[in-house]
Amino acid sequence: MASQLLASSDLLTHVGEHTRPEDAILRKLREETASLPTAAAMRVSAEEGRLLALLVKLTRARTVVEVGTFTGYSSLCMARALPRHGLLITCDITARWPALGRPHWRRAGVADRIDLRIAPATAVLDALFAEYGPGTIDLIFIDADKAGAAAYYEAALTLLSPDGLIVVAGTLSPDDGPDDQDPDTVGLREFNRLVRDDPRVEMSLLPIADGITLIRKAD
Prior knowledge:
The protein is α/β, with parallel strands linked by helices. The chain has helices spanning 2-7, 11-17, 24-34, 39-42, 46-58, 73-81, 98-108, 121-132, 149-159, 183-196, and strands at 63-67, 87-92, 114-118, 137-142, 160-169, 201-206, 212-217. Strand 6 and strand 7 (212-217) form a beta hairpin.
């Protein structure tokens, strides 16, 4: 029955109809994001945004790290879910796309909770290790190039608090088999194998959007 449900072309419509709708600020940012030429491959869906906000609250996160800002839709979802003095540190390699989200962050009243860093993800993660130390980050959301996913995961695992959560988006992206040597495809294969076989963690891959993997440190 599960396979039949996942194969249904009406699944996304069904999910959308049974998910609480966005407010005007989120909807406006998502619509602006959808108009961009790169949006199809990079945007976070409303359902993913709702899940991220819920995970921030469920984990009682106070410090969140996001690898891959794009237009800041997911940043906004998570920042809103943080407590008043919580902090979201988000990074991207370009300031172009996050600039679209900044006005919406301000409009939502959470701009002061968001620390945007324009730099390569590995450099930001290394800097966070120096600033915060190991085992200090409550939730880490990775939604960046899959060629670097394994490296981001290893750095995130070091930063993650004992009861923290790593959330990785895009883990069910298309794979055309062994002949597909696209760097992102190869990187995603490596990441999925690494996490599946890693005795240091417990994980679950959820068939939401293009795949979301939840990871926590093993007891």
